[in-house]
Queue: 2 jobs
Job 1
Amino acid sequence: MQYISTRGQAPKIGFCDVLLAGLARDGGLYVPETWPKLGESAGGAAVGSAKNSAVASYAQKAASIMSPFVGAEIDQQVFEKLCTDAYSTFRHPEVAPLVEIGPNEYLLELFHGPTLAFKDVALQLVGKLFDHVLTQRNERVMIVGATSGDTGGAAFDGVASCRNVDIVMLYPSNRVSDVQRRQMTTLTAPNVHAVAVDGTFDDCQDLVKAMFNDQKFRDANQLSAVNSINWVRVMAQVVYYVTAIEKLGRTAVFSVPTGNFGNVLAGWIAKQMGAQIEGFVVASNTNDILTRFFESKQMVANVVVPTLSPSMDIQVSSNFERLLFETNNRDGAETAKQLTDFRATGKLDVVASAYRKWFEGVFVGRRCNDEQTLVTMQDVYKQSAILIDPHTAVGLSAARQSAGVDYPKEMPMITLATAHPAKFPDAVRRATGQTPMLPEHLADLMSRPERSVSLPNDLGAVQAFVASCRG
Ligand SMILES: *Cc1c(COP(=O)(O)O)cnc(C)c1O
């Protein structure tokens, strides 16, 4: 399997190079040359996902579903071992259990990993892959990234034990929860560095993009990325859409709490690969650029407003570029032009015919403000005695708005539960009066000493810091 850039100007590369590169040299994102079908392994032989699905572990299924994307670059048995190591860090044996909470209403619990957010599903595997590939190549990299809260902790946990990786994560100061911040600032591993930037998440993301677009700096520091623009993150998330449908045994709609569009894009890929998925509810909080896009076929950027679901406080969803590339029939030049214009004007239109072909009947957008978020958390607690986090609540509210309107009432709706309630205790307490408990391995998180650096929203200052962190 070879990978091409959504902007059409970077050379084709294989899986391991895509893993390490993150962003393509032309500023685009890597996508596989073709979308494989489920059940096709790298060698073309049918793999076990259908046959022994009931007995295979999540890790085995994951290895089999992802193998066409990895291709021949990593031996299949080695890859399966890396998956097994990655998913053994999860507290639930099923890794991503499907829980029925009402008639045709399900939660897909993705928060049983070490840092309590769905990002662990991808980043635990990414950490194992980095270690494997860098050890083989005898190389060292500097991972830089931006986090709206959950990526930072999950990325640190994923790579803290990698011998050949240093990592710097930028986060918007005062816009992440105490638990999120502490998951970044309390690690003692010498190769991880949390940086509070005086700005928003989009500012942090822009700083990271600027570092990558500075070729001299990029090469001198061996920059690498594990943000959701990294293909391997998206790839790892395809797996639980497939396993959820397999568990359910029939078609369903997924409601996905969305920020950077990585998670819902993974669902769309699972559908491309042949998973029996009816469609997607793209759930946004008050930062509803995607909902407005699905309503108007036009993307218009706004300012970011802080909400109870900070990991979705994003206006420019970077992974949307991968879908845009498809709507342009994989024309990289056209995609690059649209995105450059979007940068300049803050507006992006998709022509009606492309919209009908790629979006209609597949995606609907729904929004949920803070008040609806709290009401949804309260309702679920009253109905089922389940505590859900505010991001999951946005997804569930969107699913409930959509059920019986966009889809028949009998259609199963699976909301992705993207974070553990204990990650956002203040919102949970406000909604339900209950204080969710942190799992045992994090019980003393709030009393561990913190270590973090504060920097202005300034490229020069950030670059100087990154350069000083190379091990
Ligand atoms: C990152 C995150 C999201 C948004 O996911 P995207 O892939 O960026 O769309 C939603 N909920 C939680 C808890 C997250 O950490």
Job 2
Amino acid sequence: MDYFSHFKIWVLTLSLIFQSVYGFYLPGSYPHKYNVGEALSVKVNSITSIDTEMPFSYYSLPFCQPQDGVKDSAENLGELLMGDRIENSPYRFKMHVNESEIFLCRTEPLSADNYKLLKKRIDEMYQVNLILDNLPAIRYTRKESYLLRWTGYPVGIKVQDTYYVFNHLKFTVLVHKYEEANVARVMGTGDAAEVIPTIGNEGSDIPGYMVVGFEVVPCNFMHNVQSVKNSKMYDKYPSPIKCDPTTVAMPIKENEPIVFTYEVTFEESDIKWPSRWDAYLKMEGSKVHWFSIMNSLMVITFLAGIVLVIFLRTVRRDLTRYEELDKEAQAQMNEELSGWKLVVGDVFRAPTNASLLCVMVGDGVQILGMAVVTILFAALGFMSPASRGTLITGMLIFYMILGIAAGYVAVRLWRTIGCGDHKRWISVSWRAACFFPGIAFFILTILNFLLWGSHSTGAIPFSLFVILILLWFCISVPLTLIGGLWGKGTPY
Ligand SMILES: *[C@@H]1O[C@H](CO)[C@@H](O)[C@H](O)[C@H]1NC(C)=O
């Protein structure tokens, strides 16, 4: 983290505050028109693995770097918290211009460390995640007669103990013709002219396109390392490149450079701009999610059943013992005093650690409320996956605001239980404000040290840590105290 990145995180914080004040800004939420020939640049996100769940920066591997240096382009705090690290990449296209055999770079000869690292990342099934105009790259694979859809493509592949890096990428960009009328309907507002930058009358004649799909086919091609010795980035590769995803040709070797190339074709598509995200929402993965949701529901029901049975047995055993103990007293009791009324004294007794109970109930309400409000907003489409990071940003904001509910519920319950003097409401609200964030902070710090140690992009930068603490202290804590004051009501 250099000085600039720290500065950037503070700017993102300011934008978080403005976002919460002026409503949500959705990045990529209205169409961008590209004129024919206009530059399109691909961004890279962290490389990820479903195997290790630990994201790393794309440039931690020996890939080609952009000519003007690697730059961060995070848009909100949520992205950083999710471990996304979006950076620029050397891949760039010209709108509606097909290009083939573009030479990207010849890396330095692989050092022993880099060679080992590449093999490790391939073994761990790491994926490269590319983004064009806010759309993640999609890859299709054929399994028997099914077409499977994936985001990202693997770093490489291991075939019979030999490692291959995908060194040639075949991009397909789906585009849709830009029409003013089309866009006005997309925005659904009368004042579309205000929102969309107007290009002017003469501008309308130039055909413009919107990006509605981004596909990638990774290939391994036998490059001639010597032939590109003097080539520069974006020069034409001297011989034709045939991209065949079913075969591999060029293994990685220590002390040998890797050559990277790519090609791009533009295809006009019927997909309209508003539905360009449909493909991602209909991923094969969603079926798996339903399955795992059902799975966890069943596990929860099963566990709850066990707890219930144990609980019932305990209560019943206690009751029988109780009945045996004072059989004589029972004889004198009238018929009404039976069943649960026997345990009335226990049920309405204040628990030994009343303030902890109040604090936990208050924090529980806060977290539950955050979940409900977030899901509600997500269902209304405010936090679509098209705007990376807004889900987490939204959760943060709702959590902070709902501090008021935590304070209110905790103090209210404290009053209801009625133990101790009601003047201690301040201490109860303080504890409600610190309890869950304290635990979360403790766990996060430990996890973060582990991630820092492994240089994963999942680690939260130090300045972000400071900001989270400041936000908590300046917004969440005061709101919890206000909630507590409100819950206290008038002293009785
Ligand atoms: C680019 O290539 C695709 C596929 O071959 C073709 O359909 C399309 O018309 C080409 N576009 C241009 C601008 O040449």
